[in-house]
Amino acid sequence: MTKEERYTKLQEIIKPYLPEDSRLEAIKPESHLINELNINSANLVDIVLDVEDAFDITLENEDMDEMQTVGDAMKIIESKLK
Amino acid sequence: MSKRVVITGLGVCAPNGVDLRSFTRSLREGKSGIAFQSELKKLNFGCQIAGKPTVETNYLNNYFTSLEQRGLNSSGLVYGVISGMDAWRDAGLEATSAEETDWESGIIFGTGILGVDKFREAIHLVDEGNTRRLGSTTVIQTMASGISAFLGGKLGLGNQVTTNSSACTTGTEGVLMAYERIASGKARRMLAGSCSDSGPYVWGGFDAMRILPRNFNEDPERGSRPMSQSAAGFVPGSGAGALVLESLESAQERKAHIYAEVLGGAVNCGGQRSGGTMTAPNDIAVQRCIREALDHSGIAAGEIDSINGHLTATAKDPVEIDNWCKALGLQGGDFPYINSFKSTVGHCLAAAGSIECVGTVLQFAEGMVFGNVNCEDIHPDILQQIHRTKIPQETLKYAPKVIAKASFGFGDVNACIIFKEYKP
């Protein structure tokens, strides 16, 4: 899987958690998951579980704390896959 | 001076109909929702029949977003949301907008236990040391008040939003609690209902108590036999019912359709004394509850046209009839008509009271008393109390004006409510 493919996959994971009528393009690397994408903070734990399943990795509590933006999430995924 | 309270919306998700129209038709025609459950056979249940609403996956899209459907494994929550949202719509009401809370409307939506299948999932993950994999919805799918909380958020209601629990009286008690809140002026509208999960983890305890019928696994539709001599125990059921209660003035302002008026009612407990136990009723308490309901409603016993009993299809049915006779001071041909919807939906436990209140109120709209099934062999002890014509074997074209509905539950708890046709 290329980095672009991984990024698209991450977008697809995040999309169902957006409030209705949001499009995939709204999910940009700099987008803040809660403040900009308006994701319910309770759903962040579900996104983490979906990411773990999709990339076959395990995220730690510290990873979750650092995961503020889409780009942060991408960085964490890349580091786990190394 | 307490406010008059009317019913302006109904919703149901029952074993013999998951919408109001099909449920009405089933009650009118005596159509059963009891079916053989292969899951129960596989698990060596003595009773392998049950009442379970048939909810197709695409039907869920009308009530739950795709996100809400992810990991959704709480059947009681599903039934409750379907019935609650249907009742709200049936009353001509809508969810509020994103920035608006309806402070005048609330919810009392009861349950016995919620989301047992989700809880089972969670138990396995926790025992494996995998708590972090539970996800965000385990709590809301398994907390008892998950159902009232979920509906409250869907509809945007800001008055009291709570969940009551009193075993098999839960639904009827909830309607009375909603009535009282409106009558006292604390709310204009209340969504009252209750729900109960399906499945072996809810029903297993009753099978173990040997109070479910074991001899109808080949003939499920004949298994639930209230008032019958061959009654062999109650058939477990599940589902949800919901009613919108509203002050008369609010209903009139909105020009809402009014199904019936709630005149009042009573709840009590026998204290597990004088023959009452955790599982058996104190007859004095049952009779008191019925009489208090009449007194509170300002209705004389002779004005009651029809009764929807608790009548579960156990050996206690003749005792219930005896209690009604003594409480009302009526017997033989003077006794009102009486029916039990459990013959076609089973005993829906915490949901029984609400599903049966919906069915009871539908009789005003239909101008009918729905018939009983499976009691062609009426118990001889019952026939000593009341005339056989008072137990209709088929739906009667008879428009009742006043109907009493009672529910009784484990813990020796009782609830009785009086409905009346609406007259301005």
Automatic annotation (TrEMBL), chain A:
4'-phosphopantetheine is transferred from CoA to a specific serine of apo-ACP by AcpS. This modification is essential for activity because fatty acids are bound in thioester linkage to the sulfhydryl of the prosthetic group. Keywords: Cytoplasm, Fatty acid biosynthesis, Fatty acid metabolism, Lipid biosynthesis, Lipid metabolism, Phosphopantetheine, Phosphoprotein. GO terms for cellular component: cytoplasm. It comes from the Bacteria. Pathway: Lipid metabolism; fatty acid biosynthesis. SUPFAM superfamilies: ACP-like (SSF47336). GO terms for molecular function: acyl carrier activity. It is found in: Cytoplasm. Residues 4-81 form the Carrier domain. InterPro entries: ACP, ACP-like_sf, PP-bd_ACP. The keyword Lipid biosynthesis applies. The modification O-(pantetheine 4'-phosphoryl)serine is found at residue 41. Belongs to the acyl carrier protein (ACP) family. Carrier of the growing fatty acid chain in fatty acid biosynthesis. HAMAP family: Acyl_carrier. This is Acyl carrier protein. The gene is acpP.
TrEMBL record, chain B:
It catalyses: (3Z)-decenoyl-[ACP] + malonyl-[ACP] + H(+) = 3-oxo-(5Z)-dodecenoyl-[ACP] + holo-[ACP] + CO2; a fatty acyl-[ACP] + malonyl-[ACP] + H(+) = a 3-oxoacyl-[ACP] + holo-[ACP] + CO2. It is an enzyme of class 2 (transferase). Keywords: Acyltransferase, Cytoplasm, Transferase. GO terms for molecular function: 3-oxoacyl-[acyl-carrier-protein] synthase activity. GO terms for biological process: fatty acid biosynthetic process. Residues 2-421 form the Ketosynthase family 3 (KS3) domain. InterPro entries: Beta-ketoacyl_synthase (IPR000794), Ketoacyl_synth_C (IPR014031), Ketoacyl_synth_N (IPR014030), PKS_Beta-ketoAc_synthase_dom (IPR020841), Thiolase-like (IPR016039). Its EC number is 2.3.1.41. It comes from the Bacteria. It is found in: Cytoplasm. One of its GO terms (cellular component) is cytosol. SUPFAM superfamilies: Thiolase-like. The keyword Cytoplasm applies. The keyword Acyltransferase applies. It holds the Pfam family Ketoacyl-synt_C. SMART domains: PKS_KS (SM00825). Belongs to the thiolase-like superfamily. Beta-ketoacyl-ACP synthases family. Homodimer. This is 3-oxoacyl-[acyl-carrier-protein] synthase 1. It comes from Muriicola jejuensis. The lineage of its organism: Bacteria, Pseudomonadati, Bacteroidota, Flavobacteriia, Flavobacteriales.
